[in-house]
Write a structure and sequence with these properties.
- Keywords: FAD, Flavoprotein, Oxidoreductase, Signal.
- Its EC number is 1.4.3.-.
- It is a single-pass type IV membrane protein.
- Helix content is 35%, strand content 18%.
- The protein has 316 residues and is α/β, with parallel strands linked by helices.
Length: 316
């Protein structure tokens, strides 16, 4: 069978993984990336001097952690020769709320300074959430028995009904924002439950040991994309923002902002849904698909990273 050109838009983990898989099977591919670097949601920065790099290492501004059950990315690390290391878990946790600081070593805060019932309220809510999560099919959440009911309710409305104490409610609101980069009133209860289902449960998402924050990649997570792109060589083309995708009788035509035209049999859009709005599709996308794109915004988040010469908090 003759090779068929597949045009892949986006050089993040998804786009480069698809490109690698197809390339290994002899399919002729090209990857178009709008930025002047590969990585997508992964971006690793290092100090400007070698001396500082040896002292401080690196920092992941995007995706950073890997953990148990994340088999695909762990397998990719092994294939590309990227080592991982365990994150420290022998420390106290600090919960700061309404001007008060609480140290605790368990997975969840105890709220001893505020309300003696808050810890019970939080654990009761977590158990309830996990019971609901277990009822959501991993691949088709809309088939859950109460899918319609849960999809009509925001996660905030659920917390208002479930939680009796302000502390428990505020902690779960923070859990939602930290993990979804969106407020609890911006997502349905069904979506939140499905998110937790995808993460193998609320405890695994939150924990370090045995959880989603168990490991990091030595040298930074962007290495995964950099190494895949290096193997693909000239098949990855940077600074090529796509603005038109046209479906014709004999294949697909993709056009970039500099006027370059690429023709192929298939196109893979490995980019965030909201960025599809910057592309002109001919024929237009179905109305339901277009509506979905408009209602799937990017998350809003700031990642703040500090370097310290000594772990002074351990000494104290």
């Amino acid at each position: 069978m003759a090779k068929q050109l597949v045009i892949i838009v986006g050089a993040g983990l998804s786009g480069l993984s698809a490109a690698t898989l197809l390339n290994e099977r002899g399919v002729d591919i090209v990857v178009l990336e709008a930025n002047d670097y590969v990585g997508g949601r992964t971006l690793t920065v290092k100090p400007s001097t070698k001396e500082e790099e040896l002292q401080f290492g690196w920092a992941d501004l995007g995706a950073s952690y890997v953990g148990p059950t994340q088999d695909h990315v762990l397998r990719l690390c092994k294939t590309l020769g990227c080592e991982t290391y365990l994150c420290k878990d022998n420390h106290d946790n600090i919960h700061y709320s309404r001007g008060r600081r609480c140290r605790y070593t368990s997975s969840w805060p105890c709220f001893w300074w505020s309300n003696p019932f808050a810890a019970w309220d939080l654990r009761s809510a977590i158990i309830k959430i996990q019971e609901m999560v277990d009822q959501v099919p991993e691949d088709c959440p809309w088939k859950a028995a109460k899918a319609i009911e849960w999809d009509k309710m925001t996660f905030k409305e659920f917390l208002n009904k479930q939680c009796w104490t302000r502390d428990a409610k505020e902690f779960l609101e923070a859990f939602c924002v930290i993990n979804n980069t969106a407020d609890d009133h911006q997502m349905s209860l069904l979506f939140f439950l499905w998110y937790v289902r995808q993460g193998q449960g609320i405890n695994r998402i939150w924990r370090i040991k045995g959880g989603a924050q168990e490991r990091k990649i030595v040298g930074g997570s962007q290495q995964l994309c950099l190494k895949m792109a290096q193997k693909l060589g000239g098949k990855v083309i940077l600074k090529k923002p796509v603005f038109q995708v046209r479906h014709m009788d004999d294949g697909i035509m993709v056009k970039t902002t500099d006027g370059t035209v690429y023709n192929g049999s298939y196109v893979i859009l490995a980019i965030p849904p909201v960025t599809h709005m910057k592309i002109h599709f001919d024929p237009p996308l179905p109305s339901l698909r277009h509506g979905l794109i408009q209602r799937t915004p990017m998350g809003l988040v700031i990642k703040w990273i500090a370097f310290f010469r000594k772990e002074f908090w351990v000494e104290k």
